[in-house]
Amino acid sequence: MRVGLDVGGTKTDAVAIDAAGNVQARVRRTTGWGPEAVAATVVDAVGALADELALPVAAFESVGVGIPGLVEPGTTRVAHAVNLGIVELDLAAAVAPTLGLPVAVENDVKAAALGAYALGDGTGTLAYLNFGTGVAAGIVVDGVLWTGSTGTAGEVGHLSIDPDGPLCTCGQHGCVEAFSGGGTVARRWGRPGELPVRDIFDAADAGDAEAIVLRDGVAYGISAAIRALVLTVDAGTVVLGGGITMLGDRLMAVVGAQLEQSAEASPFIRSLRLDERVRVLPAGSPVAAIGAALLGAHRDTQEVLAHG
């Protein structure tokens, strides 16, 4: 059995999967703040899974961790995980001595891409497009995570799609993230609420002019990211994930309209059938934790997926 953890800014989702890739146990823990507290959260979550299954921790084969921030390729070192209070941390070095298990670490969106691939038909090229506070994608080609030469493959959030558009936190104007990132959209909305993007869709449905502009901007950014991923890596499937997936069919209605509009003017774009390639991840799916579990202690993700 392998353990996978999705370490988020507020909560950590942890699963144990069997040899067939089925989830046998799942627990959630509040994520601590700072390097020591994050490491303690990982140890606690693994222990809780063992208790849930009435097994010793030593019964697990490996632990994989998906975490925000930059993970140095081929290592377990994470840097700039600002939402966790981490400047730099070798996570395996911090937790492996206590757990007594091999530990692998990957960026959370890239881990989620592996999970989405495993939960799909497991063939071809898949892009997992995550919409949270920011926007980023993970790309899996024939079961192998593709990160590019420096690990930045999939950073479509900072692709400028309108030079005259809103200012992005990266300093450019009109980035996908400036239109569709939850943090930027909430700031532009400027009204209190627990779920600003949902509030915007509700207000747009009620005829609020400002909300309609923001809602259409969200759809514009998402559709542009989908086109970019299909045109650059020929993703056969683009899975939408993150907090925005709670909107389900409401989201796909406006995104589908944007995709249709872009296809009207171009026979080539029409031939790509973009709308048929898009899937929305079910809300609450532990896809990043599953991907982290499949990653396990191996950097050869193709081997892991083949046996998962």
From TrEMBL:
Extent of the signal sequence: none
InterPro entries: ATPase_NBD, ROK
Domain of life: Bacteria
Pfam families: ROK
Membership in a protein family: Belongs to the ROK (NagC/XylR) family.
Protein name: ROK family protein
Source organism of the structure: Microbacterium candidum
